[in-house]
Specification:
Blueprint lengths: L1 H15 L15 H13 L9 H15 L7 H9 L4 H25 L6 H13 L4 H5 L6 H28 L3 H14 L4 H13 L3 H14 L4 H13 L3 H14 L4 H13 L3 H14 L4 H13 L3 H18 L1
Helix pairs in contact: 1-2, 3-5, 5-6, 5-8, 6-8, 8-9, 8-10, 9-10, 10-11, 11-12, 12-13, 12-14, 13-14, 14-15, 15-16, 16-17
């Protein structure tokens, strides 16, 4: 009778104390109703399955979870209840591991499904799931954590996913023209991780879109300080220098991007424009020629190379480039 009573208590707790990921199609989740049905069947056959003691009941539940049930993230309160009910260390660790694996899978699924502004709700769901995640201090107290490294790895995984969600949300808002909302997301990402080059880079792009060039350059500077190997950041900062006619600084940035990625078409193109700004026309022509060696149908490169030829008096070459530009432009539009 006592065994059945304990079985009933544990079944009620497991059925009501933990939520299940029924809504998430990337995980083979089981709904609450399905779990209730399965558990009732297990209860009916508990004697034949040898679940007639608490230890054997724990063993049965471990087997049941491994083969039939998908759990959500277990809170600290959930773990305390399980310990109070006499759940074994193996059962608790299994519930914790299964819940964490499913938490990460669910969040990654939400991220995977978020492509544009219509899907921003997926990222809102991801944020809500991650906000519920916590370090189970009870696990530490009862010795279920094997090391501090395990705790740190869990927290780092949570923070990494949160950062990714903020940045992706910002990009979606930015692409939809909602720059204020994009800025809010990037600010949240930076508060979470002040060493995120990606967050500073994307916020810099948002400032640039708002024509707040000084703030944009500050963010690109910080992003480069944190990660000096991303060629795109140099091109974007170089573009700001180009727009404010600081051509020498622009050329340095485009050159750095080319050192990192020798096939970066836009870096050659924009450096060519900067050389035109300095009236170094031969160097500009050389860069536009390099662009066309990498991308033959780059119409604007023909136009600007033609302009360079025109400036140095080579009218025949200039006219040929302008003709190609006109032909490509008609096809493009």
């Amino acid at each position: 009778m006592k065994v059945l009573f304990k079985l009933l208590i544990i079944s009620l707790f497991l059925a009501s104390g933990l939520e299940f990921f029924a809504q998430y199609n990337m995980v083979e989740a089981r709904s609450l109703d399905s779990f209730d049905t399965d558990f009732k069947e297990l209860k009916k056959g508990n004697t034949s399955q040898g679940c007639d003691t608490l230890q054997k009941l724990n063993d049965c539940l471990v087997t049941h979870i491994k083969t039939r049930t998908t759990y959500s993230f277990a809170s600290d309160a959930d773990i305390r209840k399980l310990i109070d009910l006499g759940a074994s260390a193996e059962l608790i660790q299994l519930i914790v591991k299964t819940g964490r694996d499913n938490l990460f899978s669910q969040v990654r699924g939400y991220i995977y499904h978020s492509d544009d502004i219509e899907d921003i709700e997926y990222l809102s769901r991801a944020k809500a799931v991650l906000e519920k995640a916590e370090i189970n201090e009870t696990l530490t107290q009862f010795g279920y954590y094997t090391s501090k490294r395990e705790r740190d790895e869990f927290l780092n995984s949570i923070r990494s996913l949160q950062e990714e969600v903020y940045i992706r949300s910002g990009r979606i808002y930015f692409n939809a023209g909602q720059t204020d909302l994009a800025m809010k997301e990037y600010n949240s990402g930076i508060r979470l991780n002040p060493n995120s080059a990606t967050a500073y880079y994307n916020r810099g792009n948002t400032y640039a879109d708002k024509k707040e060039f000084a703030q944009s350059i500050d963010d690109y500077n910080k992003a480069i300080e944190l990660n000096p190997t991303i060629a795109d950041i140099y091109v974007y900062r170089g573009n700001i220098y180009l727009r404010i006619k600081q051509f020498d600084l622009a050329i340095k940035d485009f050159t750095k991007a080319i050192v990192i990625n020798p096939n970066f078409v836009l870096a050659y193109y924009y450096r060519g424009l900067a050389y035109l700004g300095l009236k170094e026309n031969s160097k500009a022509i050389r860069d536009f020629t390099e662009v066309l060696s990498l991308e033959l149908d780059f119409a604007d490169a023909y136009y600007n190379r033609g302009h360079g030829y025109q400036l140095i008096g080579e009218k025949e070459k200039a006219n040929k480039d302008f003709e190609i530009y006109e032909r490509l432009s008609k096809n493009r539009f």
